[in-house]
Design a protein that fits this description.
Length: 575
């Protein structure tokens, strides 16, 4: 056991400050969700339209856990194997098993942020800002816990500081059961594709650097920890990895992905965006104040070469990551005939390391300047950076807007309840009046995840992995619409993870968010109703009226409307 690793607080005064800060953060995170309930806003893109509903679907079908990856999830695309849904042994699934789906999401979001707060505090106190002012460390830790993230990816971002802390403890021979628990648990609460190869590579490079440097020490515990981390990721994702290595009869639609030409101009724009703001899946907020603070720090420590090198290193690493991610589309285009895995795996997700690197820069800068700047400057800067982060944290901003402002304004922001519109879709199900498993539906002008959440069996879906054969069959339904718009055609043919009932006409107006307030309609929809019927399609849930429905061999049944719904539903039956 490590004697030097103590409880993370140094004295009674710091203990009170730490716990008061933690409770305050917990209140700030939880309050709007408790106040608004299912009226709360949750991120829609790559969340309510996909990741969230996947977990809800697996829960509703009793398939959250199990070792048979070939078990079919019947609700989607005429049935796809459970192995096509990632992270089968994730802690997030346990939360969805125990709690209602909405509250499982909220609890998970708050939990990982509190772990992020604790982890950043430990990392900063013991290593990054050792000996620095406790208030500054707590402030930076709190700031980190507020950054906008996709909480469905678990600890992929928020868990990095505590994982780094555990590995540094092993590096310095500070062995404790807590280190091993953190390292062992991390893979079961993080997304393998988003973080696993990158955090393993980063920790391996650091370990090799210390091992080959005569002036630094390292011990075998560090590398044993790496082995445990790797094994943990393999065990936690064994079903997904098995289906990837031995796909059986299934050929993934990812095998048909095609890289498009990418200009140097676009790469330069992406470089700036990633370097200054990050990438939205990992965390996207304006980090320019951090760079500005680092620039001030460079001037203050200009005569100390060692400090300059320490501060410059994470900035250079971010620059390299940003350059790689920005030019990655060009690399994929040039190399796709030689190595298709570059395209199908997306190694540009190394961007998930950037948010923690920003806070390493921030911690170093505060450490070097705390005694040399006016006492007001650092708190003022942290407040400015917090405002940037809070404003760009969509869920935080929208939910407090819905909580504070007038009801009329708050209602303009869609909430969980109005997005999924359970009552409205209940009326539709009652009208159809037969078991949902006996018919298949598609959606127009809204996300198929909405119908999926409400228990309908959909031919359309947003899946990051599904059979290529199915994609080709579904294409026959929307071929004429794809031919109307070259961008839409490339979007489906060259990527196609969104296997939707696309409309070129709606793409220019409301696209997939045709709420009842938008007033759009489909005047000249051109879909192959025979192909839709051949795949088992029986109903179309349209968010807009289809004016030429008779030409498409459709029968308009009824319009459904509800004051609490974001949508109106126009129900059509395929003749």
């Amino acid at each position: 056991m490590l004697k030097s690793i103590k409880f993370p607080i140094q004295n009674i005064k710091d203990t009170k400050l730490f716990f008061v800060s933690g409770i305050a953060l917990l209140f700030i995170f939880l309050f709007p969700y408790i106040y608004l309930g299912i009226g709360s806003y949750l991120t829609i893109h790559d969340n309510l339209d996909s990741e969230f509903v996947f977990l809800h679907l697996l829960k509703s079908t009793g398939l959250l856990f199990g070792f048979d990856g070939n078990t079919i999830v019947p609700n989607v695309m005429n049935g796809i194997p459970r192995s096509f849904f990632h992270s089968e042994f994730s802690f997030i699934r346990l939360l969805f098993l125990i709690f209602p789906s909405f509250w499982a999401y909220v609890i998970n979001s708050v939990l990982i942020r509190m772990i992020g707060f604790m982890g950043m505090y430990l990392f900063a106190k013991d290593y990054l800002m050792k000996g620095s002012n406790t208030k500054a460390i707590i402030a930076i830790s709190a700031l980190f816990s507020f950054i906008p993230i996709y909480s469905v990816y678990g600890l992929s971002v928020m868990g990095q500081p505590i994982l780094i802390w555990a590995f540094l403890n092993l590096c310095y021979n500070h062995r404790s059961i807590l280190n091993w628990l953190i390292i062992s648990a991390f893979p079961f609460y993080a997304h393998i594709a988003m973080i696993a190869p990158f955090i393993v590579a980063a920790l391996s490079i650091y370990g090799i650097y210390r091992f080959t440097n005569k002036n630094l020490t390292i011990n075998k515990s560090y590398f044993i920890g790496l082995g445990i981390l790797i094994c943990g990721f393999l065990i936690a994702n064994i079903i997904t990895l098995k289906s990837f290595i031995w796909p059986g009869d299934y050929i993934s639609h990812r095998s048909a992905w095609v890289a498009e030409p990418y200009s140097i101009k676009n790469a330069l724009i992406d470089f700036y965006t990633i370097f200054a703001k990050g990438q939205y899946h990992s965390s996207s907020f304006t980090a320019l104040p951090i760079y500005l603070f680092a620039l001030v720090t460079f001037f203050i420590v200009k005569n100390d070469l060692k400090k300059i090198k320490i501060l410059a290193l994470p900035i250079v690493i971010i620059g390299i990551i940003s350059l790689f991610a920005a030019t990655y589309p060009i690399i994929c285009f040039k190399m796709q005939n030689f190595s298709h895995i570059l395209l199908s795996f997306q190694f540009s997700r190394i961007e998930f390391l950037i948010p923690v690197l920003w806070f390493i820069i921030l911690g170093i800068s505060v450490q070097y300047t705390f005694q040399k700047l006016h006492p007001v400057i650092i708190p003022s800067f942290l407040i400015v950076q917090f405002l940037f982060i809070a404003w760009q944290n969509e869920e935080l901003r929208y939910n407090y807007a819905k909580t504070i402002f007038a009801k009329e304004y708050a209602e303009k922001i869609p909430g969980f309840k109005s997005f999924y519109a359970a009552e409205l879709f209940g009326e539709v199900a009652t009208f159809i009046n037969k078991p949902k498993s006996e018919y298949r539906v598609v959606s127009l002008g809204m996300f198929p995840s909405i119908a999926q959440y409400n228990g309908f069996y959909t031919l359309d879906s947003y899946q990051n992995n599904y059979p290529l054969k199915y994609k080709q069959e579904f294409r026959e339904i929307i071929a004429s619409e794809l031919n109307k718009n070259n961008e839409l055609r490339q979007y489906y043919d060259d990527w196609g993870s969104r296997c939707y009932l696309f409309s070129a006409e709606l793409r220019n107006t409301c696209n997939l968010t045709c709420s009842k307030k938008c007033g759009s309609r489909a005047d000249s929809l051109d879909i192959n109703s025979s192909a839709l019927k051949k795949m088992g399609g029986e109903y179309i849930f349209s968010a807009v009226p289809i004016i030429n429905y008779e030409q498409l061999q459709l029968n308009f049944l009824k319009k459904f409307s509800d004051i609490n719904s974001e949508w109106d539903i126009y129900l059509y039956k395929i003749l």
